[in-house]
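Appendix B. Extra example for self-study. Work through it before the problem class; the solution is given directly after the inputs so you can check yourself.
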Amino acid sequence: MADLRGGDLSRLRQLNSLTAIRELRGSGPLTLSALAERTGLSRPSMKEVTDELMALGWVEEVPPSQGTMGRPARRYRFRADSGHLVGVDIGGHNIRAALSDLDGRILAETRQPVLPGAPLAERLAAIERAVSGCLALSRTSVEQVWLISVGTVGTIDVEGRVIYSAAVPAWRDLDLAGALREVFPCQVLIENDSRLAAMAETRRGVAKGARDVVFLHVGRRMGAGLIIGGKVHRGFGAAAGEISMLPEARWFDAPEHLNTCACVPEGTPPEDAAGYTLAAARDGDPVAIEAVERYVDDLAVGAAAMVLIMDPQMVVLGGGFSRSADVLLDRLRERLERRCMRLPEVRASTLGDECVVVGAIDYAVEHLDEQLFTPDRGPLPVTR
Amino acid sequence: MADLRGGDLSRLRQLNSLTAIRELRGSGPLTLSALAERTGLSRPSMKEVTDELMALGWVEEVPPSQGTMGRPARRYRFRADSGHLVGVDIGGHNIRAALSDLDGRILAETRQPVLPGAPLAERLAAIERAVSGCLALSRTSVEQVWLISVGTVGTIDVEGRVIYSAAVPAWRDLDLAGALREVFPCQVLIENDSRLAAMAETRRGVAKGARDVVFLHVGRRMGAGLIIGGKVHRGFGAAAGEISMLPEARWFDAPEHLNTCACVPEGTPPEDAAGYTLAAARDGDPVAIEAVERYVDDLAVGAAAMVLIMDPQMVVLGGGFSRSADVLLDRLRERLERRCMRLPEVRASTLGDECVVVGAIDYAVEHLDEQLFTPDRGPLPVTR
DNA sequence: CTGACTTACGAAGGAGCGCTTCATTAGTAG
DNA sequence: CTACTAATGAAGCGCTCCTTCGTAAGTCAG
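Solution. Structure tokens for the complete assembly:
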């Protein structure tokens, strides 16, 4: 039930302006006639609307397309460059940042390595360096950034305070949103990284267009993100997807099967062990295959729980181990098939390491849209 | 992002009419001034809207309230009696039906006993008897019924075809919606009964107002229904909530702890065994308590999985065993607290056996609202 | 290069909806 | 009976969108 409310005449104009913007955002430059047809308005009215939007800086004219019959029509397009969005991925070893326009098109990316045990101040400084780097790369000033969207491990409450973070202990109880707001003069959004990755996959990855998606983060730690009805599902206490806490789901220690496999040569750094096992399994090493089988056995229990409870359209395998999806996918499918009523599609992430940053951007775009298209908050800033 | 679309001037009127209807439905009879204030319109405009709605039969005038200062204001109210809704609960042993007005206020209820093994035709006949009974009780003709909403065990696909039903094998592959549509000349909705019970609890039961709710059906069979964002969550293949299929969740055989308890006297009919055990546990029988502990141990695993994955605001315990909620609730809470990051509220259903019928009615109301308040489908039938 | 054709533009006039304003009406309080 | 209160109903205005028309700016055929 949409939040429709009638009202003044001016409200009707507002509604029409917003539909126009939405159409322009959705499909490149459009002529007046095309816009009129899509929005259902007459051409003269459409003209008035676009004139207003141009004056406000939301829309601009582009050169008419040539070679058509008849008088060339003016074309208009959404000014995606009238503002910018920043996405940040705060990982254990790396901090990634990306800058995008208002359509979520990525303009620049940077990465700042950081030691897992680095103190708080150092981490925050690295975040600032990563973001500034992006801005510098595309010659954008920080005032042009409308929204910063951050993904990190752990659970984050509604106000952007970190509740719990196993990977980055220093994060606990930190008012992350507040700390970032002091550095960057704009709105700050914080979300769990698995949820943002899930978002990215449904917006531009392998699950594009799906409404209900379960994203499995398989890597040195296990995590999950849910998309329900096309939107990120946070849960009442922002703790949705934490199935790895349940011993019976057998997720928490699952990676140990890969880490402690006998096939891993002595002296291998612990963070490379699992990767080695997966590679060995691909090459047919029976010991490694045995370890992978046991790993997927465990992975499938928690995954089946999520599938049975949610009945999603698709399960997406992401995170570090998803590089070895060829070794994992069929095995996971086979086990899910056995346990679930209806086997959803099971696919591997296509976005790789950028998954979370890109998801942060997509999350920001969604947030922006929501502000834009929610009546009573009115078309946002004007002619920046 | 609301489904806002601008358009014609008449569209604005439509929007205003709908908000007026919504306000009137929400809070009893209202005067013009009150309506105007709530919708944001001016009084003269409001008058025009209500005149139109009266002409269409959606709204009627009621006598003005007396004893107020100044000229008594006309009062208007939504004509909830201008149409009717029917809810049906197809259980193993009973078929319940209820008739309500368009606000979901229940006007009549009936129950038809039916044998678990009854053939298809007999069951359908019982449904028809139950519904006709309701109509007769409140002297309503079948033409006045806008919507029939049915709850049943098993999974039902989008078109109303039964995919799977453990309790009623004859149901399998039956086009239930189609069969009912042949008998009743109106729209037919089919849903899983646990989901409808969940709906009832969030609409008028113990979880009223909550947006994310997990409903646990505890009884001779186990089931679950999810409410996410205030709406029933079906899942992509209408199979959401089927966690009892997962052996590791330990739900499927959980009731056996109660059924086969040594405390149950020989000769007790099998359907009463669990109830006996629960009652004995309440009275302090240590053997029964032991069985209940084991039962809740199992129940808590699947429940914890749902809580960890969804992070709901509330868990509602419903179904036959919830009559013994006093024996179960604290034990369940204690186990969930141990397993989950954040313990949601855990409460017992307050609606009892009528849960599913009432939920069916609520589901019908929601469906109606959605049709009503979704633009482009326009205010439904006129002056019935 | 010219004329026919196609398509878009822009201005003018009209209808619908909501707003404000003001005199009128129907009650209660003293 | 009079003063006061609050709703009613009618009149006039402004905004938004619509339809209709003549005009402008291209392409295409000869």
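Self-check: Chain B touches chain A through 67 residues (CB under 8 Å). If your reasoning did not lead you there, revisit section 3.
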